[in-house]
Amino acid sequence: MVGINEDYDKLEGGYLFPEIGRIVGKFLERNPGTNVLKLGIGNTSEPLTPAVIEGLERGVKNLADVKTYRGYGDEQGEKRLREAIANNYNHRGIELDVSEIFVSDGAKPDSANIQSIFGAGNIAVQDPSYPVYVDTNVIAGRTGKFNKVTSQYEDIIYMPCNVENNFFPDVPEEKADLIYLCNPNNPTGTVATKNQLKTFVDYAIENEAVIIYDAAYQAFITDPKLPRSIYEVPEAKDCAIEINSFSKSHGFTGVRLGWSVVPKDLVVENTEPGKVNSLWNRRQTTFFNGASNIAQEGGIAALSEKGLKESQGLVNYYLRNGEIIKEGVESLGLKAYGGAPYIWMETPDKMPSWEFFDKLLEESYVVGTPGAGFGPSGEGFFRLSPHGHREDIEKAVESIVYNLKL
Ligand code: MLT
After folding, report:
1. 8 A C-beta contact, residue 42 and residue 186
2. Ligand 1 site: residues with CB under 6 angstroms?
């Protein structure tokens, strides 16, 4: 008789965002009709831009005509889209071959699946971090049990990100093999400098480690001096895979489109250049039939000059929402950090973050995300997402400012 994958049973509770949805559902059962204001999951709210809509419509129309109809495409993605992505990197002085770019249905599946092409090894994560990195490695059997005292999984290297280090960690003292970095960081909303990224590139090269670099929020970097891609650091192509997304920058959370870069120069223990790239190609061609061709037309349009300009408007809108949230939190005398795009606030008097979650919901009808949901160093912090409509953000901030009992 077949058994189950018992590593699933090591997971401490359900996946963070559905868990929050479940708790909010229960709150609504007890308080029917309450207008709950959602600053929890980073779910976009504003409509797609005209350029993207034109692209998506083109994608649909192509399917309506026998001359332009297409079924399966390349699993790696439309060549035109991969060229547009490569071109975009090129504007930042980064040269990529289209064969190094793999289009997908989003950064979440790529950041979940990428670990599957690597063997056993030590995982290192920023603490706090996007829960997908840890959970997928637990499921893959790379970790030990969850320790309820430390709130850590055994065999994971947690790299604390806190006020003292400006939410960017030091390289690990021990040997890590697979290192997850997210920049701008989810959940802290802080942005790393090129020198900070370089410390990890140097570490990875010295220790033959691979960096999984999640750049899903790169569009929210406003300072042109800060790197938007890890490949702005020399030699990063030798050690880093970059994952990216159209979700937050272009409003594709529901459309689903992303990409990963697996450089041919990247080598790991006992491999030749190109091997890791070919493994990801093998993985994707086996497990995935390519992103929707409609979504890809939207993506090509999003990366056109007009598309990029229009999407910048969306990004600016969410950035302004973030400023409104931060100002509101600070007006209460609480400390808030980040802004690219998430706001990472300290809970009042270091209150446990799940307790603050309940308090905020009960008193202000606002949903956020407890910092502890992102790792033990998230305890005492709370994430507020700026991806809602402006009027909802304003209502939520007003409700926090007037109703939260401090
Ligand atoms: C988040 O809120 O952290 C993200 O929106 C979740 C995701 O992208 O999967």
Report:
1. yes
2. 41-42, 108, 130, 186
